[in-house]
Design brief:
Distance between the termini: 13 Å
Structural class: alpha+beta
Number of helices: 6
Order of helices and strands: HHHEHEEEHEH
Largest sheet: 3 strands, antiparallel
Number of strands: 5
Helix content: 25-40%
CATH class of one domain: Mainly Alpha
Shape: globular
Strand content: 5-15%
């Protein structure tokens, strides 16, 4: 998501802001803080490779929050401070997907695979197609719609044609960017699809916390994964 040069630049800006060495106006400072906080969220939640301590991250976040509180005109819909922290939605409206979210078929024996290979050859006209196989995250399917670089909608798969709109709740996930620079590639509306999963160590921590509170722990960890969550 970030090139090596972009990461170096953002890290340098981070150091300047932490040390108070910056010539920015309030508006420029707020924009810069939003940019570098989103970067550090990506490093922490997606790569699991933070480059600053929690203390400095919290300091930068508090500085942005203070700037926006003192001058509400600086607040933007994609600001990290606007992520939902509480009051998640429990009742959802049904929305139609831009394109149907089709489901993959299961395969249990060699005959299924041979039949799939036959269909691929017929549809592509290729006598010997090449296949790429990779592990699949088995979580909860989600579709994210971005317009003019901003996240405007998140929805579950539902029946494949329509799903539950969960935009409010999706914004609580720090691994989902509220803004993404698609427009620099000439893309102004796009739907991104993926899986929402729980990392195994997070799942185990949740169970530890529930056990400490005397609550029932989750027994089935079959669908958890050790990779980064969407």
């Amino acid at each position: 998501m970030y090139s090596k040069d972009e990461q170096q630049h953002l890290y340098t800006l981070t150091q300047q802001l932490v040390k108070g060495e910056h010539p920015f106006s309030e508006k420029e400072k707020a924009e810069t803080l939003r940019h570098i906080i989103n970067y550090h969220d990506w490093r922490y939640y997606v790569l699991s490779e933070p480059v600053i301590t929690d203390y400095y991250y919290d300091m930068l976040f508090a500085e942005l929050k203070q700037l926006e509180t003192q001058n509400p005109t600086l607040i933007t819909s994609d600001s990290p401070t606007q992520r939902v922290a509480r009051g998640l939605t429990s009742e959802f409206e049904t929305v139609k997907h831009l394109v149907s979210m089709l489901s993959l078929e299961n395969s249990y024996d060699e005959a299924d695979l041979n039949d799939f290979d036959r269909k691929v050859k017929e549809l592509t006209g290729s006598p010997q197609p090449e296949y790429c196989v990779e592990p699949k995250f088995d979580g909860s399917s989600i579709a994210l719609v971005y317009e003019n670089d901003l996240l405007v909608r998140a929805a579950t798969r539902g029946d494949g044609t329509e799903g539950d709109e969960i935009t409010n709740n999706a914004k609580a996930l720090a691994s989902i960017p509220l803004r993404a620079p698609f427009s620099k590639h000439g893309i102004f509306k796009i739907e991104i699809r993926g899986e929402v999963i729980i990392q195994r160590h997070v799942f185990e921590k949740m169970n530890e916390e529930r056990k400490a509170k005397g609550e029932k722990v989750f027994q089935n960890a079959r669908n958890t994964a050790s990779g980064p969550c969407v």
